[in-house]
Amino acid sequence: MGRPDPVGGPGSHDLPYRSEPLAVLLDVFARWSSGGFIEALTRSTGHDLDPTSVVALTHVARHGPLRPSALAEHLFVGASNVSKISGRLTALGLVEKVPDPDDARATLLRLTDDGHAVTDALVRAGDDMMSALLEGWAPADRETFTRLLRRFETAVVDHADRLATP
C-alpha cells in the first residue's frame, strides 16, 4: 500500500470543478509549489535551502538585481520577512547587497557566483525532472505539449492583464 497523498492522486479532485483542465492544473500547482517538493528537488542538487529561499533566489536569478521591496512584493511578504530571507541568502553567500545606481540611499540584491551556481543546479534539476516526466512521449507529442502550453501561457498573461486593468 502506498503512502497517503496529501495533494490527491491523478483525477482525485475534491472540489466540483466543471473544468477538468483547471482541476488538473491545480493538482500540479499544489504539488510543485509544496514545501516538500521544493525541498526535495533542491536536495537533489546537493543544496539545502528552505522553499522560500529557493523561490527568492530563483526570482533574483530570473529578474536580475532588485530592491528588497520588489522581492517582498513578488513573494507576498512584508519588509521584515524579506529582510530575514535576504539575510539568510547573504549569510550563505548566495546573494549580496549592492548600491542601487539609481538611488544612493537604496540597495539591490544581486546573485553572487555561488548563487549563480545554485540556480544553475536548480535549472538542471528542473530540466532533468521534465525529461523524466516526458520520457516515453513521442517527439511530436512533446512538441505539441510545448506549443499548447506556450499558447496557454499567453492566454493566462493576457487574462491576468485584463483583470489587473480597472
List the uncertain runs.
1-8
Strand count, sense and closure of the main sheet?
2 strands, antiparallel
Number of helices: 7
Query: Helix/strand/pairing class, anyone?
Result: mainly alpha
Helix content: 55-70%
Strand order of the largest sheet: 1-2
Residue-averaged pLDDT: 90
CATH class (first level) name of the largest domain: Mainly Alpha
**What is the radius of gyration computed over CA atoms, rounded to a whole number of angstroms?**
19 Å
- Helix-strand topology string: HHHHHEEHH
CATH topology category name of the largest domain: Arc Repressor Mutant, subunit A
Summarize the structure.
With 166 residues, the protein is mainly α. The chain has seven helices and two strands. The longest helix is centred in the C-terminal third of the chain and has 26 residues.
Structure commentary:
This protein folds into 2 domains: 114 residues, Arc Repressor Mutant, subunit A (Orthogonal Bundle), CATH 1.10.10.10; 30 residues. It is 62% helix and 9% strand. A two-stranded antiparallel ribbon has the order 1-2. β1 and β2 form a beta hairpin. The longest helix has 26 residues. The relative contact order is 0.08.
Question: What's the SSE blueprint?
Answer:
Elements: H1 20-32, H2 35-43, H3 51-63, H4 68-75, H5 79-91, E1 95-100, E2 103-111, H6 113-133, H7 139-164
Antiparallel strand pairs: 1-2
Helix pairs in contact: 3-5, 4-5
Provide keyphrases for this structure.
single chain; 166 residues; mainly alpha; Arc Repressor Mutant, subunit A; 7 helices; 62% helix; 9% strand
